[in-house]
Structure formats: structure tokens, C-alpha cells
């Protein structure tokens, strides 16, 4: 019962974080969008998508692998200290590698040369990923502090946006403020985690750190291939479209992210260690938890997707203004992605990874990403940002189908019609059996 209360508290905390992350921007976006326009948004969002690859490399999937290890050994303080020390050292190494790759990319990657200054600002923000202790809080299921910090950040950031952004050329303040806040927050969280959980960092040899990097490569490769059919859509579109079209597409993606960040990510982040604990009891117990949780995730993401479809024109016009009317059709096309991603998250992250089916997870995402990348080039080239939007939907559906049949091959069945009944969902939430 205590674990379930922790889960509810953590989901609520993460939900508040994401609401704060988007409520405050909803105050500033109508003001900012009318000043910088689709071109400014296109430049910032394109650079953010590009720098996302370096963030991915530095993070290296440790928010999944380290969280899993900590959640399954939450009482072993020495073991947790070892995990933290190894992850921190590994991320320093990965950051140094990223610095070299970033310098090379500036010279050879033409689309990013549209505004190198924005790319540099965002790359500096990767330091926050090096010191991020999210996996510690997530593994120990203690996430309330994130809600408080994000609330404070939201207030300060909102005030600064109105003070600093006055003309179209001021768009650089958007990534600059984001970078500063990310670094400061993660420095605070790192110190706070050390004191609250008595975490002690110890020097780890480069050999040990490289061993960890090699051992955890499968999850990292999976996160890379996932990015090939998610964030790479924006990067590929940049080769065939101007900043304005990239702005139309990424603006719609922004609304999609609101739903994903308010529902999918809080659920995923809080559920992962909770379900990991369930699998540490037994395989059957863990799978049964998944069966009960799946309908809840389904209904939440389904109704969110319907709302996104219905209110797409109203939302775009209200928040961004008529300059972004072309974003409406894109938002309608991708409106059901929260539902699709919610299902793939349960199949892949919650079930496959917690069961240790890392290779199965990698194979399914790899196949989908290769097909998605090729299809994205064709659709972006011939149909622009509309083609990119349809490609996004097609590949997310393909991922869900591949994962479902991969689980069937492993003789894992997670659909149970009885758990989809409203009465049973209420009983599940109350932690009672019918």
C-alpha cells in the first residue's frame, strides 16, 4: 500500500511539473510568437532538435538503466553510491566526446550554420545532463522536489521573457534562459540528493566507466534508434524546408508535447520503478500490474488525443495567432500520437525493459527507426511538413504493432478485457480486488 501511495504521489508531482512547464509558457507564448514569428521558432526548435542528439549521447539511457538498478536495490546504500559514481564519471567522458563531435558538426552540418550562436547556447545546456540526478530520485521514488523547483523556475522565467524579449531578433533569449535554468536546477538537485539520500561520490577509474558504457550500450542504442523516428523528423525536414515550415511543424509538435509531458512522461517516469519493484517480487506479479495499469493509460491518452483533435484550430489561433494557421492541419494529423505513444511506452519501457528484454526492445525499435528514417526523407522531400506529420503517425503505429507481436513471441499476453471495465479500473485505483 505504501508503494502505491508513493506511485500516486509521484505521478501527481510529475503531472504538476509538466503543467507548470506548460502553463507558464502558455502565458508567454501568445506574446513571444507574435514577436518572433514562425521563422524564429523554426530556428530555435531546429537547433534544439539537433542538440538533442548530444543530450541523448550524454544521458546514455542511464535514466532507465540506473533507475532500474536503484529501484531493485533501494536499501543498499553502498550499491547506490557505486551507481552514482559510475554514472557521473561516464557522463563526463561522454560530454567530452560530445564536445569534439559538436565542433566537427558546426563545420560540416550546413543546416545548423543558420544560427550557430543558438546551437552553442543549447549545447552548453548539455552540462545539465551530466550532473542530472533524476535517476536517483526516480529509482527511490522521491519526485516531489521537482514540482517545487519547476514552479519557482516557471515564475522567474515568465517574468524574464516579458522583460527581455521586445523584438524579433530577441529569440535567442528563449534557449539562453532554458540553458541557465537547467544547469542551476540540476546543480541544486545534485547537492540536494547527496544530502537527502546520503549519496557519496567516489572516484571511478576510466576503465570502470567505459565498462559501464559498454555494458549499458543496448539501452543507449535503443534510445538512439527511437530518436531516428521522433526528433530526426525535424532535422530531416530542415534539409527540404525553410525555417517557416519547420516552425509550423514544431509548433504543432509543441502542443503534442504538452499532452505527452502532462500524461505520458509523468506516468512513465513514476511507473517504471514501481513496476520494477513488482517484477523484483515475481514475473507474474509484474505482468499482472501491467495488465491493470494498461487500461488506465489507454483511457487517459485516448481522451487527451480526442481533445487535441477537436480543439486544434482553437488552440493554435488562441496561443500562436493567425501567422501559424498552417500548423492546424499538422496538429490534427498527429493528434492521436499520445494514445499510440502511451501504448508503446507500456509495451516497451514498462514491460520489456523491466523484464530485461533489452535486445527485443532494441530490435523492434531499430526496425521501426530504419523504415521511419527512409520514409521520412521521401515524405519530407515531396510533401514538406505535412508529409513529416504523416510519417510520424505511421511509424509510431508501426512501433506499437511490432512491440505487440514481439511480446506475443515471448508468450506474454498483457490484454485482459475485464480490466478495461470502468468498475474494475476504480477498484484498481482503490487497490482492491473484485
Properties at a glance:
mainly alpha; globular; single chain; 17 helices; 434 residues; 0% strand
Give me the secondary-structure topology.
Layout: H1 2-59, H2 62-72, H3 77-108, H4 116-124, H5 127-131, H6 134-139, H7 144-164, H8 173-196, H9 206-215, H10 217-228, H11 232-240, H12 243-281, H13 283-319, H14 327-333, H15 337-353, H16 358-409, H17 422-429
Helix pairs in contact: 1-3, 1-4, 1-7, 1-11, 1-12, 2-3, 2-12, 3-9, 4-8, 7-8, 10-16, 11-16, 12-13, 12-14, 12-15, 12-16, 13-14, 13-15, 14-16, 15-16
Unreliable stretches: none
| Radius of gyration from CA coordinates | 21 Å
Q: How would a crystallographer describe the biggest sheet? A: none
Helix content: over 70%
What is the overall pLDDT average?
81
Can you tell me the overall shape?
globular
Order of helices and strands: HHHHHHHHHHHHHHHHH
Q: In DSSP terms, counting alpha (H) and pi (I) runs of 4 or more, how many helices? A: 17
- Approximately what portion of the residues adopt beta-strand conformation? under 5%
Distance between the termini: 17 Å
* Estimated structural class: mainly alpha
Number of domains: 1
What's the β-strand tally? 0
Organism: Chryseobacterium ginsengisoli
Subcellular location: Cell membrane
Pfam families: Polysacc_synt
Membrane topology: Multi-pass membrane protein
Amino acid at each position: 500500500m505504501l508503494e502505491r501511495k508513493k506511485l500516486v504521489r509521484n505521478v501527481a508531482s510529475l503531472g504538476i511539473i509538466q503543467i507548470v512547464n506548460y502553463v507558464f509558457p502558455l502565458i508567454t507564448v501568445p506574446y513571444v510568437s507574435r514577436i518572433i514569428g514562425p521563422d524564429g521558432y523554426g530556428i530555435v526548435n531546429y537547433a534544439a532538435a539537433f542538440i538533442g542528439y548530444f543530450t541523448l549521447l550524454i544521458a546514455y539511457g542511464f535514466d532507465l538503466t540506473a533507475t532500474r538498478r536503484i529501484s531493485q536495490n533501494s536499501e543498499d546504500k553502498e550499491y547506490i553510491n557505486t551507481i552514482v559514481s559510475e554514472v557521473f564519471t561516464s557522463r563526463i567522458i561522454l560530454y567530452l566526446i560530445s564536445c569534439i563531435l559538436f565542433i566537427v558538426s558546426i563545420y560540416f552540418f550546413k543546416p545548423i550554420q543558420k544560427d550557430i550562436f543558438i546551437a552553442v547556447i543549447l549545447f552548453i545546456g548539455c552540462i545539465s545532463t551530466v550532473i542530472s540526478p533524476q535517476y536517483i530520485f526516480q529509482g527511490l521514488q522521491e519526485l516531489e522536489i521537482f514540482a517545487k523547483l519547476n514552479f519557482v523556475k516557471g515564475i522567474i522565467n515568465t517574468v524574464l521573457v516579458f522583460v527581455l524579449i521586445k523584438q524579433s531578433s530577441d529569440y535567442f533569449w528563449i534557449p539562453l534562459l532554458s540553458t541557465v535554468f537547467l544547469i542551476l536546477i540540476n546543480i541544486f538537485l545534485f547537492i540536494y540528493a547527496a544530502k537527502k539520500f546520503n549519496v557519496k561520490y567516489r572516484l571511478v577509474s576510466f576503465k570502470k566507466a567505459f565498462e559501464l558504457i559498454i555494458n549499458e550500450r543496448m539501452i543507449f542504442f535503443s534510445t538512439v534508434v527511437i530518436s531516428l523516428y521522433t526528433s530526426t523528423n525535424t532535422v530531416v525536414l530542415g534539409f527540404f524546408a525553410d525555417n517557416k515550415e519547420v516552425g509550423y511543424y514544431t509548433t504543432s509538435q509543441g502542443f503534442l508535447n504538452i499532452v505527452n509531458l502532462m500524461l505520458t512522461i509523468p506516468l512513465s517516469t513514476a511507473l517504471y520503478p514501481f513496476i520494477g519493484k513488482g517484477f523484483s517480487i515475481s514475473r507474474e506479479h509484474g505482468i499482472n500490474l501491467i495488465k491493470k495499469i494498461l487500461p488506465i493509460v489507454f483511457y487517459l491518452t485516448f481522451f487527451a488525443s480526442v481533445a487535441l483533435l477537436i480543439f486544434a484550430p482553437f488552440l493554435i489561433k488562441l496561443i500562436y495567432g493567425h501567422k501559424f494557421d498552417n500548423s492546424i492541419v499538422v496538429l490534427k494529423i498527429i493528434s492521436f500520437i499520445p494514445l499510440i505513444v502511451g501504448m508503446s511506452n507500456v509495451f516497451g519501457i514498462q514491460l520489456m525493459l523491466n523484464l530485461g528484454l533489452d535486445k527485443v526492445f532494441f530490435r523492434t525499435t531499430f526496425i521501426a527507426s530504419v523504415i521511419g528514417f527512409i520514409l521520412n526523407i521521401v515524405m519530407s522531400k515531396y510533401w514538406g511538413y505535412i508529409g513529416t506529420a504523416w510519417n510520424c503517425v505511421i511509424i509510431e503505429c508501426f512501433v506499437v504493432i511490432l512491440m505487440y507481436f514481439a511480446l506475443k513471441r515471448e508468450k506474454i499476453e498483457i490484454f485482459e478485457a475485464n480490466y478495461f471495465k470502468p468498475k474494475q479500473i476504480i477498484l484498481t485505483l482503490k487497490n482492491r480486488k473484485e
